[in-house]
């Protein structure tokens, strides 16, 4: 029996990879995206397919939301959000509106409908704040996020949990580590490559370079999302999704330099804030305990270093493809 599946933010980095994984199943995939950070290029290979529908819309626009008809869906993957952590230190309104209000609007649309879809929400490791226990399990407390991004995601978790219990639907909350892979357009890898493209002799590194975190390759992430969705039986279930190790920012910089075949690059550390953080709200040390999801049968295939190196190679290829297309366009007089 064909399922109707909605993916908010489905033209973005993680969302488009989720579309790739689901499109071959016996399902009709609906993507709802305002294309503020996502792009149709990420899903262009599906636009002609009979079991794929793209809806351009914004969860902050109630007229757009009404297009969704949420009683039509068995599964809703809610990925739409502003995931730029740094922006919250200068404009907290962005995270409040694009994360919390957007999630509330979606939940209200679900509440007003007759059927009750299962909602899968991509949260973040930043809800833990500066956790004192490493690796950090799902039941760690108290949760004290140190960024408005982490706070907004924690607020979304609370709203989803409350709505699920009050209005009788199931929810899966996924706390993601740093996810890397092709189609990503921000983050430390993308930032380093851009900087070295502009100046191959020196690389500015925000903070003191000792920030140490877990990184998970996108294919592992998608498999974990689908696994958690399938295996979750409780009304509200929370899972960490991560690799099982860590890597520091200085090592990431060295991998990028190696893969770009550069020599004698000077590393310039800004020193950072609050003990060497890259910016206010930057988590200095993060590693998640994934034993809960592993006990159900999932495990990552790549460690943090492998995920970083693989992503660097792919992002560099992506840059080269764009450059080639630009040259071809210029030569064609476009």
List the topology elements.
Blueprint: E1 3-8, H1 13-22, E2 27-33, E3 52-56, H2 62-65, E4 75-78, H3 92-111, E5 118-124, H4 148-167, E6 171-176, E7 178-180, H5 188-198, E8 202-205, E9 212-213, E10 215-217, H6 218-231, E11 236-241, E12 247-248, H7 249-259, E13 266-269, H8 291-294, H9 304-331
Parallel strand pairs: 1-2, 1-4, 2-3, 4-5, 5-6, 6-11, 7-10, 8-13
Antiparallel strand pairs: 9-12
What's the gist of this structure?
This protein has 334 residues and is of the alpha/beta class. Helix content is 37%, strand content 18%. The chain has one domain: NAD(P)-binding Rossmann-like Domain (Rossmann fold), CATH 3.40.50.
General description of the model:
The chain is an alpha/beta fold. It has a single domain, classed as NAD(P)-binding Rossmann-like Domain (Rossmann fold). The protein is 37% helix and 18% strand. It is built from nine helices and 13 strands. It has helices spanning 13-22, 62-65, 92-111, 148-167, 188-198, 218-231, 249-259, 291-294, 304-331; strands spanning 3-8, 27-33, 52-56, 75-78, 118-124, 171-176, 178-180, 202-205, 212-213, 215-217, 236-241, 247-248, 266-269. The protein has a seven-stranded parallel β-sheet, with helices on both faces. Strand 4, helix 3 and strand 5 (118-124) form a beta-alpha-beta unit. Helix 3 runs parallel beside helix 4 and helix 5 (188-198) packs across helix 7 (249-259). The chain is globular and about 65 Å long. The model is unreliable at 330-334 (pLDDT under 50).
The fourth-level CATH homologous superfamily is NAD(P)-binding Rossmann-like Domain
CATH fold call: Rossmann fold
Question: What is the total number of structural domains?
Answer: 1
What's the gyration radius in Å?
20 Å
What would CATH call the class?
Alpha Beta
Which of globular, elongated, flat, extended, rod-shaped describes the shape? globular
Tell me the number of helical segments per DSSP (H or I, 4 or more residues long).
9
Give the oligomer, counting copies of the same chain as homo and different chains as hetero: single chain
Topology as a string of helices (H) and strands (E): EHEEHEHEHEEHEEEHEEHEHH
* Largest sheet data: 7 strands, parallel
Query: Would you tell me the structural class of the helices and strands?
Result: alpha/beta
